[in-house]
Structures are given as structure tokens and as C-alpha cells.
Amino acid sequence: MRIALLFLTFFLCCSVTPGFAEQQNKSVSSSNEDIEEKSPKKSRLTLGGYGEAVMARNFYSDSWHRYTMADKYKDDDSHGRFDLPHVVIFLGYDFGKGWTLGTEIEFEHGGTESAVEIEEEETGEYESEIERGGEVALEQFWIQKSFSRAINLRMGHIIVPVGLTNGHHNPNEFFGVYRPEGESSIIPCTWHETGVSLWGRLGDWRYEAQFIAGLDADRFGAKNWIKGGAGSPYEFKIANSYAGVVRIDNYSIKGLRLGLSGYFGNSASNSLKKTKKSDGLNGTVILGSFDFNYNAYNWIARGSFLYGYLSDSGKISESNAGLKGYGISPGTNVAKNAISAGVEVGYDIFSQIPTLKDDGQKMYVYGRYDYYDSMHSMGNNTKGQKLLDEEQWKRQRVAFGLNYHPIKDIVVKAEYSNRILDSKFNNEPSVALGVAYSGIFIK
User: Fold this and answer.
1) From the CB of residue 327, how many other CB atoms can be counted at a distance below 10 Å?
2) How far is it, in rounded angstroms, from Cα 190 to Cα 53?
3) How far apart are CA 376 and CA 371, in angstroms?
4) Taking Cα atoms as reference points, which of 245, 199, 237, 194 lies closest to residue 219?
5) Are 58 and 80 contacting, i.e. CB atoms less than 8 angstroms apart?
6) Euclidean distance between CA atoms 314 and 189, whole angstroms
7) CA dihedral 327, 186, 155, 271 (to 10 degrees)
8) What is the mean pLDDT of residues 402-422?
């Protein structure tokens, strides 16, 4: 009850703040609604970014034993966290004659991409994890040649637009305090690779095709399926195998965007330390996704469905078990198939209050539902036995909250959520407050 009163008081205070704003729907990252589509540039230099600051209270145990001995940890105390999930600086430059530069530097959780964590998947040991070599994440660095609106060639380090969140990952492009859990739990997010992209707009259609390095099967695992495969603990990305990406978006209906995306590539050979069990394996990863975004009549609705397949998953699991001691692999079973589905709907209640509507303020009341399973179906090992399915990674999540936009490019968020697990485990409710910005400051 006290938490509900805190949220109510907080937003009543915020709602009287004067300002003129509207929700920013264009992405700073230039990975979806591209900067080239905006109004004529006043400067050759483009400077922007986004960032998030979060306070959360989780009403469940933070012990790694909470899944292996659920009854013992059912009544544990809650725990709180402060976090800076993403702080990003975007810098672009127009050289002229169709040549442009784009860069994006990301600071995750207020620091570098190395951390010490308590490993939940195995024995609860402390583990030093390096998600990507270097002290900060260079999320984008590309040179682009634009021949026309329909044909653009982008070369360098680019966003991989598979699924909804990778293409639309700025904090004003989802309602939750944190990014949607489903996709970001089973595939890389934000997914960025070095390669080549061909993209363009043809009427109501936008297309993109990419040639990039394949994922690294050593870093696949139970909890997050192929998510870790985009990272590299080395100063380079192994590219013994390559991958292709295709995305198509349609804007025929006003206010509605429909998108299809797919990925195909091998992963087993992208390793420096091969094992005998990995010889001759392909580890083919196939992803297919549908997503949509609707923004009209004071309503916003977004949703996505993603399904993934990994060949040789049983043999890769056995190979990774032999790599656990080297610190480059979780060493856990990897599923043959993973799945994610999510939808969120919000309504701007300030649209019904003339003084606030005229001032450009918005207050979205929203709800969200996610279903995701990183071990949706399991493959067989070399003996023909089906691998063990760890049921704690099959999850549903419901969330309700508020998004308040007091001025341009700023959003204040509040959310209650409950992660729903199989009945043998304990559910995981939480509350969170966040403030975020997203904008282009020089253009």
C-alpha cells in the first residue's frame, strides 16, 4: 500500500511540471527510422544519445539457490538495486557527396563490460564475466554511401535488426523501466556486429540485408540460449563462419508498422579452443521474427514473436561442458529451440485533459505480457538421450505501469511486474522507478 501511495504522490508532483513535448518516436541509433529521413540538416555534425537511471525493489530471494531449493528461499527478504542500464552517446558526420559516418558508444550499468557475478546455472560460484573485449562497448561505427533513398550501403559495426527490441531499443520505444525481457533473454540485445548492410526505402516499404560474422557457439547456454554468442572475450571477433540477416518493414497503414526479420548462420567453428566433440559440427542458427508498432488516436501498441532453432544443440552442449573450466563458456545444456512472445498496450490519459494536452505533456497507462522459454525443446546427446530441460527458464511476465513525458525527449517511468514461473518455483514480483532521455541535440 505504501508503495502505491509513493507512486501516486510521485506522479501527481511530476504532472504539474510545465513544458511542451511530444513523445519522440525516431531512434537516435539510426538503426530503424533513419536520420536521413528527418528534416534537412543544419549542420554536418549530428550529436545525440540516450540514457536510463533505475531504482528497483525485488520481492524475492537473490540467492542462486532459489531455483534448486525453492521452498527454503520462499520467504526471503526483498532486495533493492540502483542501476544505469544504458548510457549512450551518438556522433555522426556528413562528409558530403552521399558519404556519412555514424558512431555509438555505450556504457552499460555505469561501467565497463566486465563484471563478477554469482552463477545461477551451476554451483553458485563467483564468476568473472567478460561480455566483450575492451572497456566500453562500441555499439556502432560505420561509413555509409547513399546512392538514393532506395539504395544505401553501410559498412562497419552495425545494429543487427532481428526482432523488435534490436531495431527499436531506445527508452522511449518501450514502456517498461527495463527493456522487454523476452527477446533480450534469448538473443543478443542490443545486437551489434561488424559487417555490411544494404538498405533502402521503396514507397511504403523499407528493406535491409546484412552480411556479418556468425555467432560463437562456445558462449551459448541454458539461461540465455544464443545471447552470449555475439560477444567475444578477445580483442577481435572470430569469423570462421558468416551469417546473413534480412528485415522488411511496411508502413502502408497510417500509424502502423509491420516487420519481418530473419537470421541464418553457422556457429560451431567460431572458436579458438576447439574440442574433439566440436569437430564437424555446424551449429546452424535460424531465427524468424514478426513485430509491429501502432501509434495513433492516443494509443500505442507494440508486440513481437520470435522463434529460434539451433542444429547440433546436443553435441554443442557436450562440447561446451568441456570448456567450462576455461571461463569462456557457461558449460550448460543448450536448447534446440527457443521462443519469445510479448505485447504491450498503453493509452495517453492526458489526452483527455485539455490543459495538459495543449501543453504537450503525456501520461501513458500501460500493461505488458511476455512469454519466453530459452529451453523450449531439447536436442539429443551423442548417445541419443534427450538433454535435460531446466524448467526455471520457462517464464511468463506481466507488468503494469505509467510513462510520463513532461518535456521533449524525457520520460519518467514506474512499473509493477511479476515474473511467473512453473509451480515448483517461486514467482518474482518487483517494482521499479526510472528516468530516461532520448534525443538528437545537434542536427
Assistant:
1) 12
2) 18
3) 11
4) 237
5) yes
6) 25
7) 30
8) 96
Label residue 2 exposed, middle or buried (CB < 10 Å: 0-12, 13-18, 19+): exposed
| Measured distance CA(106)–CA(90) in Å, rounded | 9
393 in Cβ contact with 374 (< 8 Å): yes
Determine contact, residues 186/372, Cβ cutoff 8 Å.
yes
- CB atoms inside a 10 Å sphere around CB 32: 25
pLDDT digits (tens, 9 = 90+) for 217-244: 999 999 999 999 998 877 788 889 999 9
What is the average per-residue pLDDT within 190-205?
96
Alpha carbons 106 and 199: distance in angstroms, whole number: 24
Q: Model's pTM, two decimal places?
A: 0.85
Q: Which three cell numbers stand for residue 293?
A: 508498432
Q: What is the CA 418 to chain-centroid distance, rounded?
A: 19
Contact 335, 309 (CB under 8 A): no
Cell of 75: 520467504
pLDDT tens, 150-181?
Answer: 999 999 999 999 999 998 999 999 999 999 99
Q: Which residue has the higher pLDDT, 30 or 396?
A: 396
